[in-house]
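Page 42, continued from yesterday. The earlier attempt failed because a stray header line got pasted into the input along with the sequence. Redoing it now with the clean sequence only.
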Amino acid sequence: MADFDKMTLEELVCPEGYDCDCGKHHVCALDYLKIGRGVIKYVPEMIAAMGRKKPFVVCDKNTYAVAGEKVCEILTAAGIPHVCYVIPGDRIAPAEWEAGSVVMHYDPSCDMILGVGSGVINDTCKVVAHAAGVPSAIVGTAPSMDGYASNSASMEVNHVKVSLYNHAPVGIILDSEILAQAPMRMLWAGLGDMVAKYVAICEWRISNIVTGEFYCEHIAQLMRAAVKKIVDASDGITRRDPAAIQSIAEGLIIAGVGMAYAEISRPASGLEHYFSHMWEMMALERGKPYDLHGIQVGVGTVLTMKLYRKIREVRPDRAKAEAWMKSYDREAWEQQIRRIFGKTADEIIAIEDKSKKNDPARHAARLEKLIDRWDEILKIIDEELPDYGALHSLMAATGMPMTSADLGISLEDTVDAFIGSRDIRDKYLSCSFLWDLGLTDEFADYLRQVANE
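This time it went through. Structure tokens are written below.
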């Protein structure tokens, strides 16, 4: 089979897909994809390529002004009937209220959903399209995240951040002239969401060793190529260079294809994403706003890279790890979960009841793998993670936030995000193997020292 990282975008989205030596058949079946200057004019062509006749257009107040109104004008000029719904509110979230609002206003005479926006709109439209049994398409308004082509939607369900797997959009238009005019924080968010892939691939490989989780090197290499494409264009972000923005948009689509191939978000997210998820859940618990996902992920990447500087110094101590597991107290753990998560604690406790991550026998099996293959794990860390100073400089040069303090997040919430990250889903991350090694408290103390450096 051909290497995915050597393929063009058109080849990657081939509807037949590819059999892979990992044992899976990888496919990201897009009917239509256009990236470039002025490509918003191709909306009618995209709808025709999808075999659809009447789109239900979904925007928010901001994306309607940026591109939604233009999309409706283009559809009207082309004689394509459509219904447009603008989700109300100054700031919307990928949550049950917004999805329900779209469902309540959905016109069943429409045969597709056409989102106009970025992450929140795209994820919401994926969920609603899946529920309605119709395909979705997206006209992107910002290069702020990597989920345009993925089959996962990062949503708030009962105040817990979850990944819902339904379907990917089958049509995507990214007009680089529109993307280049996005607010600078959204451009930063796209970079933040992509530098995360260094950690994501590293932790995916480690999980494969320790837990036997599925891993595909061809998908990993595709993600590495996507990151390189964006990092190489990062100096054009502050200039809003359309050519650089187009390269970034292509990298984001490639990353989404990687997730669609894997059918999970694992190739794109590791501990750095969980810092963001935790901060979002804390904000929801308190009724407070939170920053853009990619902005928070960028800060989470910096924090995780700091943790890995210390992880490189670790040598597993069986006695210490076994003593840690022996000292585990379910009641004390629940008290900690209730302190960190508040009203959502019962949901988190239910995840543990199902996954049984804290079971001594399962811990023993993971510990054995960690001890036996620690040198291999250190080699993976060295192979996958860039130099901290170089990555920090590249990100800081854009002017983006670099610490949780820059986001108004307290040191206590930063440390609690690290401690709680292991519990919000059953995914094996660096916080997971640090727990297995009995090092969670030690690394929490370390994070207190270095978080805002």
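Notes: The chain has 20 helices and ten strands.
Reminder to self: strip header lines before submitting.
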